Amino acid sequence: xxxxxxxxxxxxxxxxxxxxxxxxxxxxxxxxxxxxxxxxxxxxxxxxxxxxxxxxxxxxxxxxxxxxxxxxxxxxxxxxxxxxxxxxxxxxxxxxxxxxxxxxxxxxxxxxxxxxxxxxxxxxxxxxxxxxxxxxxxxxxxxxxxxxxxxxxxxxxxxxxxxxxxxxxxxxxxxxxxxxxxxxxxxxxxxxxxxxxxxxxxxxxxxxxxxxxxxxxxxxxxxxxxxxxxxxxxxxxxxxxxxxxxxxxxxxxxxxxxxxxxxxxxxxxxxxxxxxxxxxxxxxxxxxxxxxxxxxxxxxxxxxxxxxxxxxxxxxxxxxxxxxxxxxxxxxxxxxxxxxxxxxxxxxxxxxxxxxxxxxxxxxxxxxxxxxxxxxxxxxxxxxxxxxxxxxxxxxxxxxxxxxxxxxxxxxxxxxxxxxxxxxxxxxxxxxxxxxxxxxxxxxxxxxxxxxxxxxxxxxxxxxxxxxxxxxxxxxxxxxx
Length: 481
Prior knowledge:
By secondary structure, this protein is α+β, with helices and mostly antiparallel strands. The chain has 14 helices and 18 strands.
């Protein structure tokens, strides 16, 4: 850091400290100076300012001058610095120009317990989970708080020196979208991508649960079969050693436990909208110039297996989401948008690659809605920015809920896995005990060889699954930079 006289300031220099002049004029640290800002500093008779002297920061500052084609303020954040913390007031949206960031999420109740911002930062550092990485240039972030009129719903920290542009929230955001129509689509695509990241994470953890369930179900049966074989051999041979072994095995709480285990694949459920009974304010401009479609009660709007290239925005009535004939949930609010994530991601794909739907949309009462072809989103971002802003707000609402849902799910699956692998009465522990007991008796090995081999396989599978889970959990935790 260096103290530079005001008359030596040059465009591209980066402020090291906040610059405040009795509340009349202020610039935050990290701000890239422009000719206009330098002149303002001179107008307020400031004599010296602290400037970053790092060559990396200086290079980013010079790059900021070349990339700034608008009036947006640009800031530079060094590696390891928080741009904002979960719980902060949200008055700005950011555009990543260069660098790499991580989004961290801590449990809401933990954050609310903090008595100061420093305590919040400490909690986020120690307990925050890494939700996603932001590294795509020109991606928008920090939009959820302003869009939902909430405090920051997550924290963002730099993984490398990063350059961002600052977009004012509120009416300033709508004005920025009018001036730069692509901004709205960049924001919507970023939200849809982060939503998809969480969905994929949930599926990844769910695959671990699906592999554990057969073991949880089959082991008690295998355990009982081993015990029954030993019992038959004891009756036939009167072998006292085998009889003692059989008595030891009978002491286990797993003996004869052949009932159905608790179904665990409910740990991760469908991402059900959290807002079924929450009133949503919908800007009337969303429906401006759009064709209104009508569906009678029971009419299928989209079938499962169809291409997911349409977004449906509810105008009146209600639309249910079905798997087969089972209704999973129902949208009833004016402005509720269905199919947003898949349609936006297909639009953003270089080859406009749209997935097929795995759920069905059906009117649950006479309903009206608009239908948006995803291929028209680029055109609509210019023609009707209010619509794109509305879709982004819906995604932000859903994402805020899903962050908490993910943490709840991770907590449940961790307890489940530890119960199978690390608790005193865990299956992994029981498997090892049975193997050790049987290996001490050649007659038991001979009698129960197929079961012992299966137990070895189960043990290896459980150990691998636990190691994979630990690795995934470790990767999801924030690193203390």
